[in-house]
């Protein structure tokens, strides 16, 4: 019986070529990471240096001003941002997580409508944000009669990030080992008890990370809110979900469009505040992830 063998020269060439390719690939990855880090550090350094003179209590205590940048602040924009992103989280996270539970734990993959739902969710995640702004203007603001209010902005941004929350939550639930489900069911637990007491706690780190990334996208959006009539100059804080509002991205856009240098400094300072809010949100996600990873 003949035994097929690879020539020794070919094996040696392959063994020599593989480390070279792996080394080049590793260099390319490190270079890409380094370039991204350099650009990010340059951007953060520029914004921090440019806005440092106005990072003081005036920025979050004073209202905007169209005439004097020395007394202008961003209190209404900061408050409006917190209102909009908090309501977006309240509307989006329970809906997205519930949809992920249904699609991953209950839905019959052989049914055509479940496959259509999954396909549409993946497609909706790639739609430009301005399209959601048009949808919110035509249906939520006008057809539903909610007007240009906090609830309209939150619902529109919720629709924008809902596919991301669903996809991230499904991946986190899918990553839970099947043995956990099987052991729980074998001990007599119902399917919902298994999901609520075993699967969901084990998937919280992934769900939290995906949810914060989705909300981080929502908090920086300006295009859909421009379509929804977010006011660029407002001197009062929202007092309810049906109140008028402005947000930090809109306020930054307004200041950077001004010709005077003082407003440009204000825009940089407001960017730092927006980044601090994002950092706080990410810190909460990291805390949740570490807490539940230690438990599981």
Automatic annotation (TrEMBL):
It comes from the Bacteria. The keyword Transmembrane helix applies. This is Phosphate transport system permease protein PstA. Keywords: Cell membrane, Membrane, Transmembrane, Transmembrane helix, Transport. Gene3D superfamilies: MetI-like. It is a multi-pass membrane protein. InterPro entries: MetI-like, MetI-like_sf, Phosphate_PstA. Its main location: membrane. One of its GO terms (biological process) is phosphate ion transmembrane transport. It comes from Nonomuraea glycinis.
